[in-house]
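[Meeting: bench + compute handoff]

Bench side (C.D.) handed over the final construct sequence. Compute side (W.E.) agreed to return the predicted structure before the next meeting so the bench team could plan truncations. Sequence as handed over:
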Amino acid sequence: MRIHIATDHAGLELSADLSRHLAAAGHDVVDHGPTSYDALDDYPSFCINAALAVVADQSAGIECLGVVFGGSGNGEQIAANKVTGARAALVWNESTALLARQHNDANLISIGARQHSIDEAKHFIDVFIAEPFSGEPRHARRVDQLAEFESTGLIAGHEIGF
């Protein structure tokens, strides 16, 4: 499977370890940066590029997922979710990694590199990659509603607005 990754300076050490870990497991790792440490770097472009690549690959029928990470993972998740078609979930334990795939068909996860050890982060990522979307009708319906809102600003049969 192709795995797109991106970070900021806070996750650079994790990025190198993670790339080696995923490659050793047989994955095709595409690193969207950064490539060197800069305490003032800006994560949005790195994470947006990873999310764009995930959405493009999936649209082309390429099996892939993405992982973005930074100090807390919050900003990186927000950045990835700005991409149409991206469903990035903030993961902080095994259960959230499983549910991101099972219930939300997340195609990216975000992890706080300052919140977890490298081994914990690798475990969450491995769990996420191994878990398929359940395809249960209620979950599929909800994912479809999110995509519908994303493209139209509406959800058929539901009132949207204030």
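W.E. noted at the follow-up: The first strand starts at residue 2 and ends at 6. C.D. will use this when planning the next construct.
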